[in-house]
Inverse folding.
């Protein structure tokens, strides 16, 4: 690139010199004036200096693996500023990684013992939980180069291109050793090889395996892969010597949520009324990325409200904005549709209240994102285990909206699309993964095209139908409460958990 710019800048400057030199009016004796020569030379030199400066600037762009066929690495820092202090929570993962960091920092000590650096670490878990952040903190803590690549960058149509990019990536890591290579979405290249012979993908994966095996004890390189789908990865990639250290990075519990919120509000002026612990309790089940987003949205809202500090109100608005979506200010909802939405949301809230499913923070029929209305729940505790009864109750709450519509209007609408999909997904998990159906303690795999065993289909239907029957009966028995909740919703559009408690005084 640099050579090309220099060539064109030289050519351009040379052309301009000729033009300037010939374009000036000639003096009477038709000889070129010395001033013409001096001026043209200055302009040319000036332009040359300018272009060479431009050239230097292109070199400062965050370096990628160079060359046409090579992987373009999104982020790469030579002196990484991110350290473990920037990663809140995840103490057990940090502890595990301390050893790897020590390996990089004091490699001689380990080499003397003939120990090989544990080069393959795999982070797995849901999106936005800090996998990339943690990998970059490993580089920061060990003063190594951080080389980022995404699995999808290696997926190419042409055979051999992906493999050559892998080679270049490792070449670069070796040149810049000590270094940490981070391959995000590694499942894009590392998913199980199957019968539909995709030779480009296989070659890329094979090259990755070869490179990982090819590390010698002198190469101070750690490779960290990240995936949301550990189950998709080829067993060859997971065997000892390759990605043999698996670390689960999940959604943060309440303690970690407090720490993450503290990290992301560290440099923000907060109103003394803001209670980080309360916000953490109300954001059960969200990822670190969501929390970072909530803190940022709250700051933006405070600026919009011309405030000098970020208040409680901004945080609560930010939570709704991030979790449910943007409020549609000018949505015109027909009166009849508004009534249906009010009964639908009242149905969810009522069934949730009767079954004591979770704490209800707010019910609203103000459209937000794609939702015409919503019930905002929170949880006082982080739960890891759920009983069959609790899961069935969850499904009942999901079906509460549809049941209310059917009971009141005698027909159903498309409004329950999302609820039905979630309810069916949970019922499928109960049958296929948790052994909580009439099929007993069995686990069922879903076919390649998503098809299910007919016996599984039958059990899912049994769970959904049973839950729906229960939901309808709850709504039927508590119809007066349903009427009162929807009346309040139609009057005020939004009611709080406290107001709901006052209505449902059973
Ligand atoms: P994906 O699987 O989608 O690639 P990820 O797990 O790699 O996601 P990151 O990109 O590391 O997630 O996290 C996104 C952002 O969320 C971070 O830049 C950071 O702002 C915030 N974040 C997530 N987890 C934490 C944490 N434990 N501490 C501080 N910030 C966090």
């Amino acid at each position: 690139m640099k050579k090309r710019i220099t060539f064109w800048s030289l050519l351009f400057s040379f052309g301009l010199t000729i033009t300037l030199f010939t374009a000036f009016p000639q003096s009477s004796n038709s000889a070129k004036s010395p001033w013409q020569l001096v001026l043209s030379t200055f302009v040319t030199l000036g332009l040359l200096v300018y272009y060479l400066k431009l050239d230097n600037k292109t070199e400062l762009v965050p370096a990628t693996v160079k060359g046409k066929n090579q992987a373009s690495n999104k982020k790469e820092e030579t002196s990484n500023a991110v350290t473990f202090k920037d990663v809140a929570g995840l103490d057990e993962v940090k502890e595990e990684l301390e050893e790897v960091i020590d390996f990089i920092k004091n490699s001689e000590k380990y080499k003397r013992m003939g120990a090989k650096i544990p080069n393959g670490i795999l982070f797995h878990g849901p999106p936005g939980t800090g996998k990339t952040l943690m990998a970059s903190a490993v580089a920061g803590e060990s003063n190594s180069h951080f080389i980022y690549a995404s699995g999808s960058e290696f997926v190419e149509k042409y055979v051999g291109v992906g493999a050559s990019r892998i080679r270049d990536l490792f070449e670069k890591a070796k040149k810049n050793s000590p270094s940490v290579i981070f391959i995000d979405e590694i499942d894009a290249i590392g998913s199980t090889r199957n019968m539909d012979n995709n030779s480009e993908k296989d070659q890329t994966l094979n090259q990755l395996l070869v490179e990982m095996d090819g590390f010698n004890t002198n190469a101070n390189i750690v490779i960290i892969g990240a995936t949301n789908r550990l189950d998709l990865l080829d067993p060859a990639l997971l065997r000892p010597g390759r990605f043999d250290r698996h670390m689960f990075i999940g959604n943060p519990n309440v303690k970690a949520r407090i720490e993450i919120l503290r990290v992301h509000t560290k440099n923000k002026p907060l109103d003394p009324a803001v209670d980080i612990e309360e916000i953490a309790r109300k954001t059960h089940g969200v990822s670190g990325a969501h929390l970072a987003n909530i803190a940022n949205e709250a700051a933006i809202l405070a600026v919009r409200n011309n405030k000098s500090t970020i208040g409680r109100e901004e945080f609560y608005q930010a939570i709704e904005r991030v979790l449910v979506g943007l409020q549609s200010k000018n949505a015109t909802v027909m009166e009849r549709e508004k009534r249906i939405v009010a009964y639908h949301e009242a149905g969810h809230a009522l069934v949730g209240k009767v079954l004591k499913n979770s704490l209800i923070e707010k019910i609203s029929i103000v459209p937000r994102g794609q939702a015409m209305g919503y019930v905002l729940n929170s949880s006082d505790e982080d739960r890891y285990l759920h009983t069959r009864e609790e899961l069935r109750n969850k499904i009942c709450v999901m079906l509460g909206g549809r049941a209310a519509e059917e009971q009141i209007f005698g027909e159903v609408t498309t409004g329950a699309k999302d609820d039905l999909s979630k309810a069916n997904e949970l019922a499928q998990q109960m049958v296929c993964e948790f052994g909580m159906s009439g099929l007993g303690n069995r686990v069922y795999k879903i076919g390649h095209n998503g098809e299910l065993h007919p016996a599984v289909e039958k059990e899912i239907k049994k769970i959904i139908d049973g839950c729906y029957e229960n939901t309808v009966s709850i709504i039927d028995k508590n119809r007066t409460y349903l009427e009162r909740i929807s009346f309040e919703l139609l009057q005020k559009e939004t009611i709080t958990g406290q107001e709901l408690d006052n209505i449902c005084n059973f």
Q: What stands out?
A: The two ends are 74 Å apart (CA to CA). Confidence is low (pLDDT under 50) at residues 1-7, 53-80. The domain at 66-248 is CATH 3.40.50.300 (Rossmann fold). The chain has four domains: 2-56, 66-248, 254-323, 335-503.
